[in-house]
User: Fold these one by one.
Assistant:
Number 1:
Amino acid sequence: MSSSTKISVALDSRSYNIEYLAAIADLRTRLSPVTGHAIALIDANVDRLYGKAFRKALPHVEFLRIAAGERSKSFLSLEKTANALVKAGATRASRLIAIGGGVVGDLTGFLAGVFMRGIPFVQVPTTLLAMVDSSVGGKTAVNLASGKNLVGVFHQPQAVFVIPSLLETLPPRELKCGLSEAIKTALIADASLVLAMENHSYDARRFDLDFLTNLSAAAIRIKADIVAKDEKEENIRAYLNFGHTLAHAIEAATHYRDVLHGEAVAVGQRFAALLSRRLGLLSPSDEARIQALLKKYQLPIRLGDVIRTQTGSRAVTPPKLLELMRSDKKNQSNAIRFVLLSAIGRAELPRPVADKELLASLKEFLLLA
Ligand SMILES: NC(=O)c1ccc[n+]([C@@H]2O[C@H](COP(=O)([O-])OP(=O)(O)OC[C@H]3O[C@@H](n4cnc5c(N)ncnc54)[C@H](O)[C@@H]3O)[C@@H](O)[C@H]2O)c1
C-alpha cells in the first residue's frame, strides 16, 4: 500500500476521494486547494498529541477543541460548537475539518449538515474505527438520552484524508474496536479479506503500520462500493449493520458506559453467526471460523465478557435484551430484524426473527464456552 492510495466514493455530484497520507505535514498541500475560511474541530486527546503538527500543516485554519468521549455527540455540544463557529466568523462559505475518531466525525458532519443550512466538511479520521468505517458514507448524528444516533442527517464529506501513522498512539482497546468493524466488513462482503485476516500473524503488542493501512483500505473499499450503490440505506447498506442489533442492546443495557461500541459489535457478530446457523443459513464450520477470527483478534465473544448475565439486580437477562433490541431504530413495526450471513463474505438483507427463536438463541448463546 503506498501513501498515495486513493479510493473513490462514486455519488455523482457528491463523489469524493479517500486519500492516504504518510504524515500530518502532507495535509498542507492536500488542503490548501480547499481555500476559504476553514475551522477544524479537533478531539482533545488528538490535540494534546498532534495539535502542534496539525496547526503547522494548516496555518490558516482555526482550531476548536472538542472534549473526548461519546458525551460530545449531544445537542448541548452541538449548540456550544455552533455558537463557537459564529464567534469564529464562520459563514455559509466556511468549511469544517473533523480531526478525531467517530465522535468528532459524527458531530462535525452533523454540524456541517445543518449549520447555515449546510456547509462542506472534510474528515481526518484518527482512530482505526473511523478509518475503517465512520469517516466514509456520510452518516452523521448526535445521541438523545433515549438512544444513540437518533438525530442526524446524511451529509457526505468533501474528502477524507487517512494518516495511518496516527494509530501508533491509539490505546489498544480502541484499536481492537476498529478491528471488530473491519472483521464485520470482511464477513459481509469479502471472503478473501476474511482469509487474509485469518492468515495474518497478529501480535497485539506490535504496532504493524502496513497491516493496519492495508486493512483500513480494504475495508473502506468495500464500504465505498456499498455506499455508492445504496447511499441512504434502502437496501444493501444495511449489511453494514451485521452484529449491531444485539450490540445496540448491550450498549443500552450498560448505559453507553463500560462497553465500547466495537466490543459490543464483536459479541453481536458472534451472536448473529449463531443465529444464522440456527436458522439453517450458515454452516457450523463457518460459524466456528467466525468465532475463531474474533478470538484471534482478542475480541470479546460472549455476553458474559461484556455484561453481567448471572445473578443480582444488574444482571441482563434474555427477555431484557429482547426488549432492548425491539427499540432498535432499524426495526419495522414490532418485529426484531437481523442481518444474517449465508456464508463467509455473504450477507442477507435484514429479516424479522421471531421472539421465540431469539429467546432460544440467546439462551444457547449464554451457554457458549
Ligand atoms: N457515522 C458512521 O457511519 C459511524 C459508523 C460507526 C461508528 N460511528 C460512531 O463512532 C463513534 C465511535 O468512534 P471511535 O471508536 O472512533 O471513538 P472516539 O471518537 O470516542 O475515539 C476513541 C478514543 O480515542 C481517542 N483518540 C482518537 N484518536 C487518537 C489517536 N490517534 N491517538 C490516541 N488517542 C486517540 C479519543 O480521544 C477517544 O478517547 C460512536 O459514536 C459511533 O456511533 C459512526
Note: The mean pLDDT is 93.
Number 2:
Amino acid sequence: MKAIAAVDKNWGIGKDGKLLAHLPGDLKYFRENTLGKVLIMGRKTLESLPGGKALPGRTTIVLSGDENYEPKAAEGARTLLATSFDELMAMLLSMEFAEGIDLEEDVMVCGGESVYKQFFPYCNEILITKIDEKFSADKYFENLDELAISGMLKITYESEVQEDNGIKYKFVKYSR
Ligand SMILES: NC(=O)c1ccc[n+]([C@@H]2O[C@H](COP(=O)([O-])OP(=O)(O)OC[C@H]3O[C@@H](n4cnc5c(N)ncnc54)[C@H](OP(=O)(O)O)[C@@H]3O)[C@@H](O)[C@H]2O)c1
C-alpha cells in the first residue's frame, strides 16, 4: 500500500482536527492520486472532510472502535467500516480476491496521525507534500528524511516548487 500526506517543515500534519494549510494544488494532487482507489482513514480524518463525508469516486474504509458508527458519504462515494486493524487487513484481502484490487498499487493510507503510525510499516511508497513553512501543530508524521539518511527509504521523485496563497511546497516520493 501507499501513504499520502502533507507535512510542514517539522513534519506536522494537523492542528485541532484540521489541516495546517489550504493548498488547492495539493488537494488536486490528492484527488489525482486517490481517485478510483481504496482509501484508509481514521474516524477523525473522515469527520474533518467537507461535510464530514467520504469523497466521491473512491472506496473509503473508515476505522472506528464504535461498531455502530455510520460513516457519512458524498454522492458517488463508497464507505466501509473497520473496527480494528486486523478487521481492516482482512477486508483488504477479501477485496483483493473478490474485486481484484492490487494491494500494493490501489490502497492509499490517508491519515490521520494514528492511522499513519499503524500502517506505515506496510507502505512501500509514501507521497509527501512538503510545505515550506513551520506551523503550530498537534499531529505529526514520521520524519522520512531521517529514514532516508539512514538508508531505510530512498527519495524517488521531487517536483518543482509549487506555490498557493503565498505558500511554497513540493511533492516528494519516498520508497522502501
Ligand atoms: N496533513 C495531512 O496529510 C493529513 C491527512 C489526514 C489527517 N490529517 C490531520 O490529522 C488529524 C487527525 O489525526 P488523529 O490521529 O487525531 O485521528 P485519525 O487517525 O484520523 O482518527 C483516529 C480515530 O480512528 C479510529 N481508529 C484508529 N485506529 C483504529 C483501530 N486500529 N481500530 C479501531 N479504530 C481506530 C478511532 O476512532 P474512534 O474514536 O471512533 O474509536 C480513533 O479515535 C487532523 O488534524 C487531520 O486534519 C492530516
Note: DSSP finds five helices and 14 strands in the chain.
Number 3:
Amino acid sequence: MQSRTPHVVLGEISKTFKSSATLAVDSVSLEVFKGESVTLLGPSGCGKTTTLRMIAGLERADTGMISIGRNIVFDARTHIDLPPERRNAGMVFQSYAIWPHMSVAENVAFPLNARRIAAADIRERVIRALETVGLEGFGERPATRLSGGQQQRVAFARALVHEPEVLLLDEPLSNLDVKLREQMQIELKSLQTQQGWTVINVTHDQTEALGISDRIFILNKGRIEQGGAPRELYERPRTKFVRDFLGKVVSLTGSVKGLFNGAVLVSLRCAPDLVWTCTPGDSGPFAPGDDVEVSIRPEAVTTRAGTDTQPVHGKVLTALYQGDRTLCEAASGGEKILCYLPGGLLPATGEDLTLHLPASAMQVWSR
Ligand SMILES: Nc1ncnc2c1ncn2[C@@H]1O[C@H](COP(=O)(O)OP(=O)(O)OP(=O)(O)O)[C@@H](O)[C@H]1O
Ligand SMILES: [Mg+2]
C-alpha cells in the first residue's frame, strides 16, 4: 500500500519559452505520493510535456522548486539544478527513442553504463528489466527488428533498469493501435500496483487517464484546473472545462426554483413542472428565477425509473446500434438528450421515449 509521504513535489514551477514568448507552464504545484500513479491530462499545448521535462531535468524551469525522493533536484532561488542522470527518474517518450544501432540489451543497459556499474550487475539488471516487461530472451536482437509494441517495451525496460524513484511517461502508448493500447494500459496498471512504482504519466486520452491513474491533474493553458481521483473529477467537475474534457455531457436548460442546504432546486425546460434537487457545479451564485445550465453524463440517463429520478418525455432522433448497447439521441422540449439504451433495444426514429434523469447525477452551472 502506498504511504502518504510526498515523493515528488513540484512547488510553483513556471516556464516561458523565450523563442515563442509562450508561458507554457504557469505556477504548477503538486505532490505525488510514493506508489501513486498520477496523470497530467489536457489538450495539445497545455504544458504537459514541458512539465514532465522539467521534472526530468531536460528543460529548465524559470521559477519554483522540484524534489524527487529526499533530494531537491531543482530550486530557482538557491540555483540547485541537478542534471538528468542525477535526478533518479526514468523517462519513456512517445517516440520511444530507441537507438537503432544497438541490440535490445544494449539499449536497456544504456542508463546503467552512464552510472558506472559492474558488468555482471548490469547483465543481471537488464535481464530482470526485460522480464518485467515481458521481453525475456530478446536481449541479443537488434532493436529495430521489433514491432512497435515491443519497441515500446524496450523503452519501458530502459526507464526501469536503474530502479528510479519515479517513472515519467510522456504518452508512451499513443502510437499503438487501439487494441494493443488497451492491453498495455492493463499491463501498465497491474505492474505499477504490483511493483509499487511512483508514476507521472502524461496523456490527452481521457479514457486512459481515468483507467490508469490514482489521481488526475487537468491542465489548461499551463495551469492546473482541478486535481483529484478520476471518479471525483468525472462525477464532480468544478469547471466546465474539466467537465467537457472528461467525456460526453448532456447539457440542458433549467431554471432555479429555490435553494436548500447547499443544493439547487431546478426545473428543466423539457419538464417545467418537475423539480430536481441538484448539486451546484460552479459557485454560481444561484437565485430563484435564474436561467441555468444543467448537465448530466449520457450514461446516467436511464430508461428505468430509480429512487431519485424523474421522467422526461421525448422522441428518438437517431439510434446507433453498438452491439453491447445503443447510442441514442432524443429530442425533448427543443433540447437534445444523448443516452445509452441497453443492447438489443433499437428504437426507430420518431418513436416515443421516456428517459429518467437522476438528480444525484445532475450538476447546475451558471450561464
Ligand atoms: N522548445 C520550445 N520552444 C518554444 N515553445 C515551446 C517549446 N516546447 C513547447 N513550446 C510551447 O509550449 C507550450 C506547451 O507545450 P507542451 O509541449 O508542453 O504541450 P503538451 O501539453 O505536451 O502538448 P501535446 O499534447 O501536443 O504534446 C506550447 O504552446 C508549445 O508550443
Ligand atoms: Mg506533449
Note: The first helix runs from residue 48 to 56.
